[in-house]
Amino acid sequence: MGKLSPIEFEILSHRIYSIMNEARQGVMRVSGSPVVCEAGECLFAAYTAEGYTSVTACGLMLHTVGSQGFIQKIIADQSEHPGIFEGDMFFFNDPLIGGIHASDQAILAPLFYKGQLYGWLGSLTHTPESGAIEPGGMPPSSRSLLHEGFRIEGQKIVVGGKLNPPVVNTIKRAVRDPGFVMLDVHAKIAGLNIGKARMHEMTERYGINTMREVLQGMIDQSADLARAKLRELQDGTWRTIMHGDHNCVDYKHWKVEISLTKKGEELTIDFTGTSPENTGPLNCMLPGTTGSCFVAIASQLFHETMLNYGLMVPVKIIAPEGSMVNVGALSPCCMCPPYPGCSVSAGVTQLIAKMFFTRRKFHGDINSCWSTNMIAPFFGGVNQYGITTGSMFFDCFAGGTGAGVDRDGVNTGAAQMNMESNIADCETNEMVNPVMYLWRRESKDSGGPGMYRGGSGLSFCQVAHNTPALVFGQIGLGSEVSTTPSLCGGYPAGSVKVIAARHINSSERFAKGEVPYSLEDIYNMYSDDVQELPPQSPSAPHPEGSIWAVDSQVAGGGLGDPLDRDPALVKVDLEDGYISERAARELYCVVLDPKSGEVDYKATGAARNKVKEERRARGKVWKEEK
Amino acid sequence: MKNKHFVIGVDTGGTFTDVVLVDSNGESTIGKSATTPKKLEDGVINAVKDACEKLNMTLEDVLSQTFSFKQGTTIGTNIMINRNGVKTGLITTKGFEDTLYIQRGGGRVAGLRESEIRHQAVCRKPVPFIPKSLIYGVSERVDCFAKIVIPLNEEEVVAAVRELVGKGVEAIAVCLLWSFANPAHEQRIKQIIKDMAPDVYVQISSEVAPVIKEYGRMNTVAIDTYVGPPMIKWYDILAKELKTRGYNNELLTMQAWGGVMPYSEMSPIGTINSGPAGGVLATKFIAENLGFKNVVATDVGGTSFEASVIAEWRPVFHHEPLIMRYRVETPMVEIRSIGAGGGTIAWADDSGRLRVGPVSAGADPGPVCYQIGGTQPTVTDADLLLGYLDAGYFLGGKMKLDKDAALEAYKELGKKVGLDPIETAAGVFEIQNAHMSDLLRGVVTQRGHDPKDFVVFCFGGGGPLHGSSYGKELGFSKIYMFQQSSVFSAYGIALTDVESYVNYFEHHKMPVDPEVLSSIYVDLEERAYAKMEKMGFTRDVVKLNREIIMKFGRQVHMETIPVENKRHYTRKDIEKIINDFLEHYQKVYGEGAGFVEAGVESLSYVVRPSIDSVKPMMPKHALGAKSSKGAIKGTRQVYFKEYGEFKETTIYDYGKLSAGNVVEGAGIIETPTTTMVVLPDQVATVDEYLNVVIEG
After folding, report:
1. Would an 8 Å CB–CB cutoff place A68 in contact with chain B?
2. Does the pLDDT of residue B1 top 70, yes or no?
């Protein structure tokens, strides 16, 4: 630290952090996108003059370090010509440089004081419309980055404090719903204006050198704290393999192989062994992989520090070129969050958990994997107000968290990439989109069984409603293979089921009270029209009255042997609908007295012993197998 | 004393029950008694008696001459904390039975501090008050255009009610999707319940909280129903007690939106957090008397620092209120807080940097200097070491503080951060002030205001001690310091107007047909009048205020704009409403934030009927001489950042100051319950109300 005292540093860093939170709230209130203002998919951060993230507002973690790539590229390419000036704001959404996919649209603003550049502010929103070949910004049918919508490479959207018409018009002419997209642009600009004003007040008072020192000091502080924590943990290497079942073209098994090595104060995350690039957009460019690692590192490992680049200083990432976690410049990658992004985050979470086992002090922080079997539907068409539009639904952000060593995962509570993940109320979604929900509930048998159960996931169903024309598809993973593994003998989270029934007379039947309230009901009522969909499904005509439903998505992984779960907890889970009778009987081996409904502990013990005997009979001793 | 009319305000707190009794001349008398948890009404009666005795009157005499008895209570909060409300069932739209459990996902972090949110592995959801076994879904559906898409299956309703009653529920909450736009199904269900089980307490969401967003609305009606019966029961008991003792009017209850209502008409959930709302109303009253339309009220207690805002004479409301950790849709006066109180712990992180809070030692184990078990250095320990507090005069001398123990604690902490104990304590004081400033800055500027247009009021045991610092930091035009009022909430409750609200949802693109808007408000006002007439008020005493809730097209976030009262709106009026919305938006979110091309929409319309209450008088004193020498009680060494060292500083006895006295900084003004710090470059004046004021 330079001339600043520790007290001054603490005061000023806290102030800058408060400003980031204030500005982020401003963005969220102006945005038109429920995914931003309700689900919180919005980043607001301050950066050093060189473009390293100093501090991010509480909330979205995914782009904390990914967004710095945008600034560094602007500095590299534009410092000399055309130059970077006060009153400029740059628009960037190239996943090769930062963010994760073209829907992650950032605006970056340099901070000047009396002509000198001393820092940057950045605001990024996930805007679910990018002019891609399908509506919603994440087209499963993409086979190239060129299919994934417009990309603006750091052009000035604001010059001298005013919107720059050619850039604005480029965006408006590239998308299906310019009003929707521009509202997010205005939201980011509003937040940046708030942030700039507050930072200017601070700089006036404390001087530019102090501001530079604080912005860098926050990174250094986080790096110091991160190293201090790493020193407490045992050296070692831990490994995992995350599996997937679909590549947006067809069912195909892929894997992300991850090893985590801790030596002294350094951590290496190595993806060697990961499957090669997928044909479909189930790929990650390097900034996306780095961001996905950051999610696990920031939320699980270094939760005591500010969110900034400092957390990555002791971390090295090895991502082989050509693997699905480091694909080429024009490779399709719109699906990266969640896949393989969430698989990366979940895998690193699992490895951090294994590392935590080496120190009892950190056992309370052990989590099995959080929800990755995300299914997110998207649509395009004419809404109930006659407006042509397109968007996505992020109900999948109410996912189950992984079980801990002494607790179940949280049911329907989180998307790991965003600390404050929320989902919109159904009424909010229905107010702005041409759909009506038939149900949204916690999904039975979705949480990974274990001594401690993974948090339950979500099931929901939507009907195309009040629309003259709609297409509908979904992105997702995990119908053949669960992508959310477990720890210590627990089961992974349940795999997903997605169905649709189209060209049906549902509204007439609804008026008679004939309403499906489960997937089984849909099968029974529309047996001739039901389509079982793969987890990734490109948009298809979805006329008024068409039904789309998903079950058992986004649950958390279990921890420990289900046979060790307290039978009383199994009974409660059964009563509350988190597990089925079959699961209680076959997975947990809990026997309930048929008359009283209470746990028959003797019979349960016997049932569990029987299964353990069967396991022992099946088992092979390692040296025999060799 | 005869021919005097009284207004009584009561705040039943966790430890004490406070009473403020105001007569028709505006003079107020305070009463206080220990809260009697098992029979709360006894504490109320005892506290009122205490006030009566000061007037040399009997309880019966006073009550027989009391015009309004206004009661604030923590019953609702206690019921939620202890989870001992009535056994409550919920009927909702089939398919949405898990809404209270899903909590929009974000329930996992709602109400947590940022440091807690960062610790993602251990965040948990709060447990809903209605178990899943008591939640039933019935087949029905209304859509966003208020159209019935699936008819109500009354057989399912009957079966659900039968099962719930069979399970022993005493209350049933009803919340159906889009019921606020079309309440027909909810009203029908309510009728069926009343027919089948007339003794069961029923609340429907379209009456309790007719607003969009089903999770908040469902929580609101669920909590309202859960706490309702025991709360009504207690109010019945209190009403009876008061009646037998001579009070013949309606018993009024304080509501969290800053009004009182006859308890027979109250929203039970509205009583929760009503005590703090009383404090905000007291602030508003003082502000009005002093002539300030923009005030930030701050309160520094043992654990937290709280701030609320009065802007353009009106309290600011929460954007997305929480009760404890539960999202609700009840209008609530906004009080923001952070963990920055006297008991906040100072510590060193793993990199050796000095940090303050948010964890607090509270009152138990307390600061080290209290010597009741606390071992970690706190802000109060720092205040003591720096000389702001007198170890021999804390709480007016009732409690002695151990300065040596505080010094030892700061020595230990200092070693970890590489500073001597005084440097460490000074750093802690400064960091604490900065955290408070950051909260205040956000609270004021997030609504588009400038602190320079505001006055700051400093309340609580620690407010006047830190207020001169955070007030200076933010450049408030004046810093007001108040002697600690132990009955502030009761005072606010006493002066609160009877106020309610009625609202209506109808989605329109602006400009709306002026006749449509006129008709909406005419209907709303009739509903408002009917509500007040039911309470016994005539129209001529009812004031009405209108609001409209608007958003940009394609947006989700809504803003509330005041609307002029008019019988018939014109196109020009509609244009003005739109312009008011745009200006407000620009003020709060900056130029260019609004995307006018997306269009402007109106969603909800609100009318707030109110009846003015008799207000207490703030006793005025004639301004006298400037010299405050007569109040000097001594000097001591006090550390000021401005000097970077200890200086011999004059200590004043607040009780001996008079209106007009001037205290030049640096100086300390001591009262038995609070300490006021005047910084070296400040000048404090005692105003005609005996408040201590520092000009900006």
Report:
1. no
2. no
